[in-house]
Each structure stands twice: as C-alpha cells, then as structure tokens.
Amino acid sequence: MPLAEESTLPRDPPLTLPLVIIGNGPSGICLSYMLSGYRPYLSPDAVHPNPILQSRLEEARHLSIHEQDLEYLSEGLEGRSTNPVAVLFDTLLHPNADFGYDYPSVLQWKLEEEHYIPHIVLGKGPPGGAWHDMEGSMLTLSLGDWMELPGLKFKDWALGKRRNLKTDRATPAEVASYYKHYIKIMGLQRNFIDNTYITSVVKPYREQEESTSQGNGVVVASEEPQIREGNDEPVLKKNWEIQGYTRAADGSHQPFCLFAEAIALATGTFDSPARLGVSGEDLPYVSHCIAEFEAAVNKGKLSGSVDPVLIVGAGLTAADAILCASNHNIPIIHAFRRRVTDPSLIFKQLPKKLYPEYHKVYHMMCMQSHTTASNLHASYTGFPEHCVLSFKPDMKCVLQGTGGLKKVLKISMALVLIGSHPNLSFLKEQGRGLGHHPNQPITCKGNPVEIDPYTYESLKEPNLFALGPLVGDNFIRFLKGGALAITRCLETRQKNRHRLAESDGVS
Predict the structure, then answer these.
(1) Cβ–Cβ < 8 Å for 30, 483
(2) Which H/E stretch holds residue 380?
(3) Most Cβ neighbours (<10 Å): which of 124, 158, 175, 229?
(4) Which residues form a coiled coil (predicted)?
C-alpha cells in the first residue's frame, strides 16, 4: 500500500522498504514518479521519425515500455549519452532533438496504481535538489522542455504561472519551482521526506561465504550473530541499513534508522566543489562557490577601483562568474588549462543564437589574452594554458604557463570554479569501489559508478542502483532513462518473486 500523504521517518521499530532513494533532485523525482505506477505507452497515433524504432515499438504496442526489452529497443540508437537506455528514452520523449527538430513525444502516460512500489525519497532540502541553490536569474544551459519531467510539459506549467516566454530557456529559479510543484501535481508528496541527512549506508549482514572476503570497500561485514530458523540453517539478511537524522526548523536533530532491500543513489554531483590542491587555497579570499562571489558583488565589496578578480576554470560556471563581473565593471583575470582552440571546450558545443552570452565569454577568451594588446581590454585578461601554483597571504596568486614561466598577480578575490564531486561520505571509503576505476573517487566524467547498462544496478554491489550525474548523465533529458531501467528491473524482480511464491504454494 502507498505510504501516508505526509511521510515521516519512524524510529522504533525500523521501517523496511523495497527501495530508498537518496537524493531528491530531478533524478530522484523521476524515479519516484515511475515507481508510483506511472507507465509510458506508445501513443495511438504516434509515428516515430526513426522507422526501425517505430517498427520495434509496433511489435508490442499493447505493452508499456517498462514491459519491453530495453536492449532490443535501444539497439543502434545514438545520442549524447553513453548509456543506451538514456538515449532510447530521450529519443522517445524528444525525437531527433539533437538535429534541431521539435517533434512531439511518441509516449502517453497512464497511472496504474497496482504497479506502485513502496519507496521513500530522502533529500536535504525541498524537492528539486541543487536547483534551489543556484543563482535564480541565470538562464539554464538546456531548453526549458529538456528540463521537464514526464507527464507535465514545462511550457504548459510556465504559461500557467503567467511567465513571459521570451526565450525557450528557463532560469534555475523557474526550474526549481517547476520540480517542487511537480511532486504535488503528480501526487508524489507521500514519498518525499525533506531535511534528511544520511550518515551511514551499510549492509549489516553478509553471505556466510563472503564474510571472510575483503569485499569491494562498500559493504562491511557484521559481527551480529547469525539468525537461524527451524532447520538450523543460517538465514543471513542482506538488507541495507540507512542511518541519518532529520533537521527540524529549530535546528534540532532527530536520528533515524531504516532498512531497504535496495537503494538508489540519486545525489547528483554538486555537493563538493573540486579543488586545485595548491598552497594557500584555504585563504579567506579564495572561494569555490559562485554564490559567495555574487554576495560580495551585491554588498559592494568589489566596487570602485579594485584589483582584478581571478576566475579559474573554463566551464559554464566560470563563464557565469565572468559575465557577473563584467556586468559590474569588475576587472577579470581568467586562468584555464586548455587551449582556446580545444574542441572539448563546452562553448564549442553551444549554438551561438541560443547562447549569445556564453559566446561573448568565448570571444573574450580567444581575443583578449595576456599575449595581445591587453590595454585595449583592461576589464578582461585571459591566461589560456595556465595553472595556479599557489595563493599568497598578501592577496597574490602565482600562475605558470606551459613554458614554465611564472607570473605573480595581485588580485582582490579568487574564484576556483573547476567542477564539483558527489558527496558519498555515507558509504565506506566514499563509494570508491563502485567506479570504473577502483579506489578512485567517483566523478561524473572521469570515474562514474559502473552499472549494468539496462538495469542501472551497480556491477560491484548488488541491490545498489545509481542514476543521473553519478553514471555520467549530466543532462536532465537523459537521467529519465535511468529511472525507466531501475523501475523495470524492480518490477521484473517483484514478478519473479511472486511466481516463485505461487509455485511453492502449489507444491
């Protein structure tokens, strides 16, 4: 049966659930939507522009996508994700989107409550995750309809809010509000518990034959006594134990402990800013958060005749900081490791018409480096192919170029914006054993969680699933495939258990 409308975490006795989702951003929301019984079917009159995929869909038109062979449907499809189910589901929701077409989705959604799988979604803040912490005025990288979740078109929701749709791109504040309203409109509130902080996720019991092995660094062997039943054979529990606390409005903490047959990691990668690892990086004038810079600007701390702000990084967050500084006439020193002609720079992948502000930054990067007549562009000076050697207590930074030449620059503030890493501190050794490269930190690009491509279950740890940026799907349009794969996997296992129970009952 579904949980109550307002979920709370019990203390005694512990609650055991089929699945606990850690993270309430778009990944966790989409997974909860599908686990709640919403199922996608091929629309009656839909014709996919890919004739091979259309033919395969027609073979089982009466079945939901959850009930079909995802590997068969995914075969031969290409897209901007390395996960085949993510590409499949994206091309069903946004056919030929990467070719500039705006074809409607070929899916229709039906609520079939008999397929509800009990679960809860634990998050630190309101549903929407990191979107609530982003600067509210910036335009997002993706089109508004690429940010949407199944069953509720972003444009329809935005029109209902009387938003002036001058652009197809949305602001983070609008996206955060959309996700928060989404769970209410879809009736998912019963599954969400906010203000929860996870401190430990372990398996307190292990298989007898595994208890003496080293494991993979995630699961810990327990010294609990074996539980035996009438035939004296050991019955070893394999549920996950999740411990943490909820934080009340007055700041007090309420601890909780619950058990789950499976967990899904949907934490995203915005928790821990990446660091340079250089001397002086912890000095007060060095920041790893664009919000701190914006706060300083708004308070007037950087107004007037000041030394330049150093911005380190060549991604979109660094570009946002450059735009903010430029708009407030703050001089900028921009250091980044790559060449301006590097094809992997994100600016080269963005259409100029849709992202003019980012191409303005890229133009500055190309034309206003320290090797050109920088006196013509005193507001911005780029240092391509440079790295930071150290920060000094006297507000000076030491840069080094590819030739080994060092430069000492006086600055007013340093912004290190070189990406971020997920916070998996609740797993032993922060989940290092789950990645493609053992014993290395999990990162969305270099070392994502290694999963079965058609179930999103960890290849290193049974009954542990991951989706979204943790498996390399950084765009919201692709994380939905992970929710589809996990839901299908759990439904299949549930059916198999029921068949076994029925056969045992007959015998």
Answers:
(1) yes
(2) strand 380-384
(3) 175
(4) none
Taking the model in full, what pTM does it have? 0.77
How many folded domains does the chain comprise?
A: 2
**Run of H or E including 119:** strand 119-122
Q: Report yes or no on 186 lying in a domain.
A: yes
Q: Are residues 325 and 389 in the same domain?
A: yes
The CATH number given to whatever domain includes residue 164 is 3.50.50
Mutual orientation of helices 84-93 and 476-506 as an angle, nearest 10°?
A: 110
CA distance 27 to 467: 7
User: How are beta strands 240-247 and 406-410 bridged, if at all?
Assistant: unpaired
Please give the structure tokens belonging to residue 464: 């542990």
248 domain-assigned: no
The last residue of one of the domains, among 364, 399, 418, is 418
- Is residue 49 one of the residues assigned to a domain? yes
Same domain, 315 and 464: no
Residue 155, phi then psi, degrees to nearest 5: -65, -40
Look up tokens 């769970």; give the residue.
Answer: 183
Domain assignment of residue 157, given as a range = 16-195+450-500
For residue 87 the two structure tokens come to 């590409």
413 and 455 part of one domain: no
pLDDT in tens, the chain (507 residues): 344 455 666 555 557 899 999 999 899 999 999 999 999 999 998 899 999 999 999 999 999 999 999 999 999 998 878 899 999 999 998 888 766 667 788 999 999 999 999 999 999 877 765 554 555 444 444 444 556 778 777 777 777 665 555 555 567 777 778 888 889 999 999 999 989 999 999 987 544 444 333 333 333 333 343 333 444 444 445 789 999 999 888 888 999 999 999 999 999 776 678 889 999 999 999 999 888 888 888 888 887 778 999 999 998 889 988 988 988 889 999 999 999 999 888 888 776 776 788 888 999 999 887 776 444 446 899 999 999 999 999 999 999 998 889 999 999 999 999 887 888 999 988 898 999 998 888 888 788 999 999 999 999 999 999 999 899 887 777 889 999 999 999 999 988 888 887 776 654
Nearest to 460 by CA among 210, 215, 192: 215
In a domain, 7, yes or no: no
DSSP code string of 27-69: HHHHHHHHHTTEEEEE-TT---SSHHHHHHHHHTTTS-GGGS-
DSSP labels for 328-365?
TT--EEEEESS-TT-TTSGGGGS-TTT-HHHHHHHHHH
